[in-house]
User: Fold these one by one.
Assistant:
Number 1:
Amino acid sequence: MSMIGLNDIKNARNRIVGHIISTPLVCSPTLSDICGVAVGLKLEHYQTTGSFKLRGATNAILELTEAERAHGVVAASTGNHGRALSHAVRAVGSRATICMSRLVPENKVSEVRRLGADVRIIGNSQDDAQKEVERLVAENGFVMLPPFDHPAIVAGQGTIGLEIVEAMPDVNTVLVPLSGGGLAAGVAAAVKSMRSHAKVIGLTMERGAAMKASLDAGEPVLVEEFPSLADSLGGGIGLDNKVTFPMCRALLDDVVLLSESEIAAGIRHAYVREREILEGAGAVGIAALIANKISGLRGPVALVLSGRNIDMAVHRRVVNATGNPPA
Ligand SMILES: *Cc1c(COP(=O)(O)O)cnc(C)c1O
């Protein structure tokens, strides 16, 4: 199995440092109050392109050879990876083709288009989009840069873990949104190699949680994909997963599942109490804390707010709803 380690992540940081923002980790008095332990928010939704995906995408693009850059890159995406890649290729004069399913919200699709990528809308799942990627690789010789299962992507996302430990040296618990596991694997590798006692917990939605189902089964499995407020967490982990499944199995202490109404409450709390606009995937950490879903929580806690690219009409509907919306 290919595991990414602290050195890979430090090398990634040296490579991407001039291209990304090192985001702040700020104290949340309201969440610290609710939880009874210090809670810090890693404001990764302020990353350029509105999500952490720019770190991995930039690291992967900068590792390509001149010849590979000349061919152009292709990826399947739930939106944010595509947006990050479309931004990152501009720095090296390459081109991106992004394949997305019909489940990807229109606001994300139009941002990818605006950045100048070639957009293909294919089928009703990430798996359908991935088939189109493979066709384009075979027919056009594009270089595939997957959203998570790639060493350079994991190492890039892991730079968040370095920044967390630097800002919060006594961190005991790190909460990370979890889909394909690039973010969780990278952050856990960085944090645990510097703070071996710290727990890293993945958070995801109840329906269609592919990594959770795969960890339970002991091998990558297929799950059905459903619409969710946490649309960035949709999609499978790939039946031939090479990097993120073994790393998540070795490094994650737990995976916690959130219902749609809990995720909505997380978005609402972020807005009303923290003054932050988050997409559903970015709010799962807050959702888990306010729903008291993490047993034996030990502080200080660092929580990754992973993205803010929510359709604003959806955001208005969620924050204006009183009480819990129907699940
Ligand atoms: C991609 C994404 C995630 C999940 O990251 P993985 O590396 O696939 O686990 C979480 N939050 C946001 C906002 C994302 O775009």
Number 2:
Amino acid sequence: MTTLQDCRARDAQDPLRSLREHFTLPDGTLYLDGNSLGALPRAAPARVAQVVAQEWGQDLITSWNKAGWVDLPARLGDQFAPWIGAGQGQVVFTDTTSINLFKVLTAAARVARADAPQRTRVVSERSNFPTDLYIAQSVCEQHGLQLALVEPDEIDAELQAGDVAILLLTHVNYRTGAMHDMAAVTARAHAHGALCVWDLCHSAGAVPVDLLGADADYAVGCGYKYLNGGPGAPAFVWAHPRLAGRFAQPLSGWFGHAAPFAFTPDYQPAPGIGRYLCGTQPILSLSALQCGLDVFSAAELLGGMAALRAKSLALTDLFIELVETHCAGHGLALATPREHALRGSQVSLTRDENAYAIVQALIARGVVGDFRKGDGGAGLHKDILRFGFTPLYTRFEDVWRAAQHLREVLETGEWQRPQFHQINAVT
Ligand SMILES: *Cc1c(COP(=O)(O)O)cnc(C)c1O
């Protein structure tokens, strides 16, 4: 059985241990929620202050050129592209995941309507993140398509029906942490004539992603989760080069124009992914995000994604082992797949009752995970206690301590205190 000493020894030997220094983490907190809001990069406060004081305060409008504000979305896209298997000039950071999803789903709907008008359905998972489903509903209404929501094991049968225009999937499920085989699923979608749109919110920066290798069609992902870009950080959007230039996106704003400063009255989309920009970009937020992406550049020198993935799996394996050995008999069940190839960078536990109060009791002890509500259904759809393990800054010792706190909360029944049962606005 793994001991605290073993965990400390693993931390001492961890090739990525220096990356924790790139973050400011509050004392006394075990932060296991980097998959909801990433930690603060140490460089971000000074960087944002400099952009405010110098680039905005002193250099004012000249900073669009002088400080390179105008191409920041594309520069950050190029900086991060290798981490998702995308090429240079194929990614921009802009807007939110929800908005980017609206753009790519609309683009995909237009491609599908033009190439295969008999295809009238968009398929996604019932357990997909709700905003993805809400956006898909809107796009379907606008383009005369029907949205079908299924369980993961029903996707193949849906594709075989032959009328699927778009398959919209989130690579790593936000509740269970289950991961799809992107290349295999994309190949099956293509074999049945469907376009494949991937949401990478819980995978970008946390697990290996190879969009070009998987021959994906479109992808979007989050800047404030594993990328540590700050609350509401700009998200990213990617379209395969064969599709990027094919249709104008629906939010045809001037920053996506081929020549925004020509001020012509008619819209001419920029070539490629540049057209996925809409209006004036949030420079302060992009500047903070850059500090998060810079940590990945540092990680590249320490083994890159292979090293991050190895550590992430070691962390999640350890947490599963410790929960199963130390917290047995308290009604917890594992919702996250044990098989490495099917697991993202989180561990989700289900419990029939009081999952919310247990999470609250842990937070009161400084162990920050989160609760995700089920829909009352069986299996996949139970209430969840969710723990994210960001390999950039989580230590093996943290995993040990988190598991001990969980054991104590369960053994003492601390979660029964009334204050842990009050439901907050943001859970
Ligand atoms: C976090 C998350 C989002 C968030 O979308 P926003 O537009 O940033 O609010 C969307 N989809 C998935 C799958 C997510 O995990």
